[in-house]
Amino acid sequence: MANQIKTIGVLTSGGDAPGMNAAIRAVVRIALSKGLTVKGIQRGYSGLLNEEIIDMDAKSVADTIQKGGTILYTARCEEMRTPEGQKKAADICKKHGIEGLVVIGGDGSFQGAQKLAHLGINTIGVPGTIDLDIACTEYTIGFDTAVNTAMEAIDKIRDTSTSHERCSVIEVMGRSAGYIALWCGIANGAEDILLPERWDGDVDRLIEHIKETKARGKKHHIVINAEGIGNSQALAKRIEEETGMETRATILGHLQRGGSPTCKDRVYASLMGAYAVDLLCQGKSNRVVAYSKGQYVDFEIDEALAMKKDIDDYQFDVSKHLAR
Predict the structure, then answer these.
(1) Rounded distance between C-alpha atoms, residue 320 and residue 313, angstroms
(2) Looking at the whole model, is its pTM more than 0.85?
(3) How does pLDDT run across 285-300, given as a tens digit for each residue?
(4) Does pLDDT of 101 surpass 60?
(5) Residue 170 pairs with which residues in a beta bridge?
(6) In the chain, count of helices (H) and strands (E)?
(7) Residue 152 CB partners (closer than 8 Å, separation 6+)
(8) Active-site positions?
(9) 86/190 Cα distance (integer angstroms)
(10) C-alpha to C-alpha distances, 207 to 103, 132, 190, 223, 226, nearest whole angstrom
(11) C-alpha to C-alpha distance for 241 and 188, rounded to whole angstroms
(12) Pairing of strands 295-300, 287-292
């Protein structure tokens, strides 16, 4: 089976995530060790459709494992959502001799990989997103770095919030998922954590909690607000108006995407990249690499996309009891 694949491609798609370079590096070097030719596709599916395809060797990925972002660049691509764009992408892969493709990205990227698999290109997805919102896996490349970056920033905001006896509303990324917010809320000792999966919109109850903690003698109050809820500036204004406590909103934004990846993101991304190449060499296609119960496993892309993910009830319950 290993001899059936001779040339593979690798691309990163969607939002960048720290650790993507470690995955690219592993794909390239593991493939080379198996005697395969590797093509790097720049700027995701957009670059594939524009034939931005380069040859990659061991030197191409030297001194990259510690770098944030992606050396192959990334982009969104509306054309890839159309049947015409998908067929064009498959034809370009065949034109360049790319028999197998490793797609590093999130759910949207996997949908493109799924279409290419149905058009005869062996595809393997590797979960790369800081949002941790891919249901089939307990780990996604970039989450660990992003949550540590946010945690360190919130620690600093807490220092100044305490000094000025303020309330701080701090908005973290995560798109429509609340995992970064939940982890930061627990790690930073936040008094309130607002998650898209659990928030009922009851601002009055939030304000009452702030008043209660103030009455107990607390000199500051930290509210971690998930991106999926947003409106942090308006929320901060209302809190200040109704509690009399000076309140500032801070949106951490894209600093959470950048930076040198943590050890976990480097190691897990490397192993996932290697696993993806192994699957291609076994003749597998239309699969997503995942980490589950301490093991690297794989699922059909169709099955993975159909899965739903929710916040763990126990973790959320603990976070509420700790925020007193």
Answers:
(1) 11
(2) yes
(3) 999 999 999 999 999 9
(4) yes
(5) 224, 250
(6) 11, 11
(7) none
(8) 131
(9) 45
(10) 45, 29, 15, 11, 17
(11) 25
(12) antiparallel
